[in-house]
Amino acid sequence: xxxxxxxxxxxxxxxxxxRIRFDxxxxxxxxxKNDRRSYLxxxxxxxxxxxxxxxxxxxxxxxxxxxxxxxxxxxFFFADGDYKLSKGTADFNGEIIAGKKFEELSSDTxxxxxxxxxxxxxFRECTFEEVEEMFYRVNQSVPLTSTEKTRVKVSPAVRExxxxxxxxxxxxxxAFTKADRNRYVDEQxxxxxxxxxxxxxxxxxxASLNKFISGLDEVPARVVDLIEQKIDYMDAAFRNxxxxxRKMLKKVHVSSLFQVVDYALEKHWSExxxxxxxxxxxxxRYSVDSPYGQxxxxxxxxxxxxxxxxxxxxxxxxxxx
Length: 321
Prior knowledge:
Order of helices and strands: EHEHEEHHEHHHHHHHHHHHH
Structural class: alpha/beta
Strand content: 5-15%
Mean pLDDT: 91
């Protein structure tokens, strides 16, 4: 492994952004909120110390970011005018910069932003495994979720299937928060789909699910086809649900709905009939204090609790049908 450090200005990094890649498997998504991004930009303008950005040169012409994604994206998004400096930002050289976007700053302040020198440490002649280990060493103080750690261990073939399934428009209907998506909760839901479709006798969260998905070499085509069919079915069932109704399409419910689609198909329910039942069960009659609602609280991914939830749903479907 070889290492070297160079100085690059903000302007230089902006000019290189087409070559900068953030999609190493262990990288987390954009998780900084605008107030934290603003603090970074304020530090740049005031020429404060900012830790080194770590990158990997593997010879393919791209600059692969190991550590520094949040900092670089804060710069890029600010330069693009995507957010303003926070209202609590102190004046700079007599200029009020709080609440301003990049283009609204004076030319002098823009100059300070664009000419800040970042130290970029570049690693060469090293393996992906060495780069991955470096990432974890650097980020020990910023613990990754178990899902983020597991994504790194997932085989490329499985990761590709999960990402392709995640492109389905149905996932736009699910009530994921921005934080959920940044933490790959949507991908974890697809892991649950794969586990249930392959009849895994495991908990649907934590170590059990992570061990299953990271030990999988590939997802058989027949499994992918079945998952796609069930996702299509749910997508059609909820096609007329407005934004208010879709708030009930939370991960814990969708994971169970995915499994009881089997019962609906067995009984030859139409998508509309399934959607009507789900509306009745999850919206009209749902309560957090109900027996089913209680099963959606803490420990909701244990196989015993999942089984009880499915039993409640199927019994209700029997009466509804």
